[in-house]
Please model this.
Amino acid sequence: MSSNNQFHLPHVGRTYKLILLAIAISACLFTFDVMMPLGVAGGIPYVALIMLGLWFPERKDVIYLALLGTALTFLGYSMAPIGGMVLVNRVLALAAIWITALLIYKYSQLMADQRKMVRAVEQSTIGILITDPNGVIEYVNPKLLDMTGYEKFDVVGSNSRIFKSGLTPVETYENLWTTIKAGKEWRGELINKHKNGQLFWENAQIFPVKGRAGAIRNFVAIKEDITERKRKEEELILAKLDAENANEAKTAFLANISHEFRTPMNAILGFTELMQMKIFGSLQNEKYEEYVENIHYSAAHLRELIDKILDLSKIEAGKQELNETEIDISDLFNSCMSMGVELAKEAGVNAENVCQDNLPNLLADETMIRQVLVNLLSNAIKFTPKGGNITLNAALDRKDRLILAVTDNGIGIAKSDFEKALSAFGQVENVFTRSHTGSGLGLAICEQLVQLHGGKLELDSVLGEGTTVRLIFPATRTVESKSG
Model:
């Protein structure tokens, strides 16, 4: 409470002083009024009392002064000799008192609003500059001084060219002046110079202020220092270039190393097949036969991984070309199911081919689409428990888009793991998946092969309930069957 009282004391003390001054002036004016012969003063001097309202802290105080002046005018009239001229003078005095009071009341509001605006401009975190029509600076707020390093006396009266760095294109300034002199607002970015010579970027908004006759009286510039933002943008661009270069280097490395691995891997597969076939006689020991089988299986798995890495490298390098043909969906599904039927039997799952009748053909690279579907079928079989069901189906939606889908009721994927499942080398970890080998490249390659056709791969899955992977091709790849 004490701090609040201390805060208001100067304000209260000033008000008391003004009240005492008003009383003193009222007494003097009233004395002057009644002493004049025949009431010649007529109450007009009381306007001076109303003028005191300019210094009172509250707008309403001027009304109180006007009421006081009115009362004194009537009191003076009652004490003056009776006469028509005296009455006219008093009426004129009352008019002068209230007109003055209303003008001061309105003026006080304008002054209060102006003080608010000045306060807002002074405290603004945005730099503000006002010039005359020739660009000579008339006002700058503290933030702009902080941005530029200048003092107020350095810039007021100087031309706005004082901030130019020489690095902003001349065309930018030509466009700026053409725009604002035409009475329009200009927005853009400028490279300006600090007083110490350091360069900085600013985002500027400049607009004209016109007088009543429509002529331009001033230009107002609102400026924001965006140097830090520009620096971060440049860092992001450089980081993006570094990432792209690193990705290209990674792709080239994977492609080269995969090619180098492929030759000895084919030799291992070839020799182990010969040993399994016993071309040159028996291995004489069952353990050797078991070892050869394991070597052959591991080599086959490694070659499959190498092939996938090569596929991914080709796609990322933009070297994968489409060999487009019209594909009969029914024939495509039969071909894919024939490849997966043995694998499904071994896993103890049921695989079913469901396809709408009279579907149009798909204009695509048949080898790629078959690779995608076989990969999806293989994943579905791998992650569906024994006795589960897998469905390969196709349909045409209302937008004439062909949709191919592989659905299973296997272990499913949590939504939080979708992005990981679709990323290169990304594998969703759980008890079931840890017991199955995989590179984590399957879905990533599938998605990119579909995107090469202008389509998209959609993943829909519920953990513990199953997964559906849809391949959605644009309507431009839907081709009416020639037989249809």
